[in-house]
Amino acid sequence: MAVGIVVLGGFVMKSRAQENLENLDRRISSLEEQVRLNAELVARSESVDRFYSKIAEQHSVLWTDEEIHDRLRREIYRLAMQDYYPPGSDVVIPDDAPRLVHIKSLRAGYLLDGDGYREYQLSFKPLPTDLKSLITFLARLQTSPQTLRIDALDISRPPTRKEVSATIAVTRTVVDAGEGAAEAGDEAGAEGALAPNLVENGGFEVWNPVTEGFDGWQAEGVALAQDVDHAREGDYCMKAVLNADTGAIYQECTVEAGKTYQVAADISAEGDVSVAPFTVDGAPLARLEPAAIEENGAVRYRWLVTVPGEAGQMAALRAPILELAGAGTTVYVDNVSVRLYGG
After folding, report:
1. Which partner for 253 in 102, 143, 198, 275 could form a disulfide, CB atoms 3.0-4.6 Å apart?
2. Contact indicator for 311, 179 with CB cutoff of 8 Å
3. Domain final position from 120, 147, 175
4. For residue 269, is it within any domain?
């Protein structure tokens, strides 16, 4: 009997020891897995740090506004070539070099300040081209080493042409290269992120020969035409010649009350022309003073307009209203946009 009890006790002790060993094995396996996972996380963290440092070398907030614009401008022109050279190459592009898309000019963009980064936003219009070339160019923009982002894209084609016209809004993110980096410039935050343009045919590339006007636009007392010489981007701009004592030009957009919109246009004039206050159902709007930038004879106007009324209700915004006085007065208009500001 005593022998049986001893044997049973030994069996129980052995079972407990075996169980303890198995628990220790499981604990060791768990710790080994945790060590492996931690090692992977460290490796990934180091990889992310290296990638971030590599990006930061190309996108530093220490750059001036002019340096940011110049680097982005050169990158866009590089990607527009038929056979583009490697990024970072110090190459002067010949005027007669074959191009995938042709871009007349690139205006200065706008900076939006963030916490440790800036977003540089630029909008431009290549000359009309075939759809395949345009798609290839867009794909190049998306895969650029400058981490570009296409924020807005408007494509149109006149019924009588095979080529397509496009307005492209691109953003480049400029990040903090590390501790002690300079703060963003004072002009940062001049505009919010780009939203879709509510204006129809704001580049005036499409002419309606039946109505002898531009679809979506209202004109009173003026004769309209497409003009090549004063186009800021693309092929054409609007030319309006006053053939009465007074006249006006505008487009009506549907907007949401309580929201703020940015309105922009390139305008040059010969004679008495004023850009009147915007109206919603005929009522004047309170607004910030327009920012005007002289560019080769044209003035770039920008307004921030908060639409009055009950939030969420839809309203009609006339933008921009140009008033002409004196027969023969001529105005040239291009790149008109109305975009939701700040989300």
Report:
1. 198
2. no
3. 175
4. yes
